[in-house]
Design a protein that fits this description.
This protein is of the alpha+beta class. It folds into 2 domains: 213 residues, no CATH class; 169 residues, Glucose Permease (Domain IIA) (Distorted Sandwich), CATH 2.70.70. It is built from 6 helices and 12 strands. Strands 1, 4, 5, 6, 7, 8, 9, 10, 11 and 12 form a 10-stranded antiparallel β-sheet that branches. It has a two-stranded antiparallel sheet with strand order 2-3. The longest helix has 76 residues. The chain starts with a helix and ends in a 9-residue tail after the last strand. The relative contact order is 0.09. Pfam families: Peptidase_M23. This is Peptidase M23. Keywords: Coiled coil, Signal.
Length: 409
């Protein structure tokens, strides 16, 4: 009986161990599936945009940028699908091992139960049980024998229930195993199609890049002209920030209008600390989107010989997509910016987030906003068909990389 108790304890430990791993794997699978759906939607959105732009006969540069973006997203989708398939493989192996352990334990239980039934059958008559009690040397021994008979009956019943429970568990695991194998095969089949699409996109990319190389000087001039326009917008943003700091300090009564930093009240200091503590955990400024240009100086994504600079990040989102506050704060400015529609500046103590290129604004200066509150609709370009948010982050008047602050950007 001690051996049986030990076996059941081992099985219980295995259930806990496998159950914990299964719960973690389930959470990971749900996260991966969520991201996979986002990537598929992203690829679909880029593809629709590419088809639309081809009909409009948009610039070769724009077509290559869209294609590059789709290729990157497709490569990410393939990697992520492989992760899902590998995770399913681990789950399948775990469940296969668990099934093996259950079968061994079930065989032991059935053998023990069979021996008990056989023993019980040999001494099943009521007369044998009465004689077993009457042959006791004293009342205490008779009482102990009666208790033993009860315990023996309960133990046999308990073993019968364990066999039923283990059999059900085994059936459920086998069903789950079949389902997991089907899911894995589905993912593998989907990956084959995705890889085929990726190869087609790469061929199209090579054809377009051949055109780019032939006219590289012409395209380099176009890029520099566009960068000049971006620099002008960035200077307007910088001016807006300096004026906002001066205005805020004047309104606070500090009189330090020439300072380049905000005069902070205790509440503003607490908000700034809270904002800083959430570095790397802030939500995206749009519900769904993809970064098309990151922060800082970098080679142009198509004409690599030309350097471009970006004071924030550019995020392509769905048409009609809404800009959302990434943290609690106060709207300090709403301004029209030449060449970039409207910009909303939200202050979080001495931190600033700017949401630029909005065609419609839902807030006004002085409004309190909360995390993920919609503050405006992102503008869609008539020429490219892209809906792009320019998102910037500052501490006072110092530029910061939004990619360091936004979760998984």
């Amino acid at each position: 009986m001690i051996k049986l108790k030990f076996s059941r304890s081992l099985l219980f430990f295995l259930f806990l161990f496998f159950g914990y791993n299964l719960a973690n794997a389930q959470t990971n699978r749900e996260d991966l599936e969520k991201r996979r759906i986002e990537l598929r939607n992203e690829i679909s959105r880029i593809n629709e945009l590419r088809i639309s732009n081809q009909k409009k006969q948009s610039s070769v540069l724009g077509q290559v940028e869209d294609l590059n973006q789709q290729i990157r997203s497709t490569e990410d989708l393939i990697k992520l699908t492989n992760q899902q398939a590998n995770l399913l493989t681990r789950e399948i192996n775990t469940n296969t091992n668990k099934i093996g352990q259950l079968r061994k334990e079930l065989e032991k239980l059935k053998e023990d139960y069979s021996r008990m039934i056989e023993k019980s059958y040999k001494s099943k008559s009521q007369q044998s049980r009465v004689m077993f009690l009457l042959s006791s040397e004293n009342f205490l021994q008779a009482y102990k024998r009666l208790q033993y008979m009860k315990q023996y009956t309960n133990y046999r019943k308990q073993q019968g229930e364990e066999i039923k429970a283990n059999t059900r568990e085994l059936q459920e695991l086998n069903s789950r195993l079949v389902q997991q194998k089907e899911e894995k095969e589905k993912l593998i089949a989907e990956n084959r199609k995705t890889r085929a699409q990726l190869e087609e996109n790469r061929k199209s990319q090579q054809t377009l890049m051949a055109t780019i190389r032939k006219r590289e000087g012409e395209f380099a001039t176009q890029i520099r002209k566009k960068q000049s326009e971006i620099d002008q917008i960035d200077r307007a943003i910088d001016k807006m920030i300096r004026e906002s700091i001066a205005k805020a300090n004047k309104e606070s009564g500090s009189g330090s209008t020439s300072r380049s930093t905000f005069e902070l009240t205790p509440a503003a200091k607490a908000l700034a600390t809270d904002f800083n503590n959430n570095k790397g955990k802030l939500p995206w400024p749009v519900k769904s989107g993809v970064v098309t240009m990151r922060y800082g100086k970098q080679p142009h994504p198509v004409v690599r010989s030309v350097m471009v600079n970006n004071n924030g990040v550019r995020i392509d989102t769905d048409k009609g997509g809404k800009a959302r506050a990434v943290f609690n704060g106060t709207v300090s400015e709403v301004q029209a910016v030449k060449g970039a529609n409207q910009a909303v500046m939200v202050r979080h103590g001495d931190y600033i987030t700017i949401y630029n290129n909005l065609q419609e604004v839902y807030v006004k200066r002085g409004d309190k906003v909360t995390t993920e509150q919609e503050i405006g609709e992102v503008a869609t370009s008539r020429t490219t068909g892209k809906t792009t948010l320019h998102f910037l982050l500052y501490k006072n008047d110092q530029k910061m990389d939004p990619g360091d602050w936004i979760y998984r950007m």
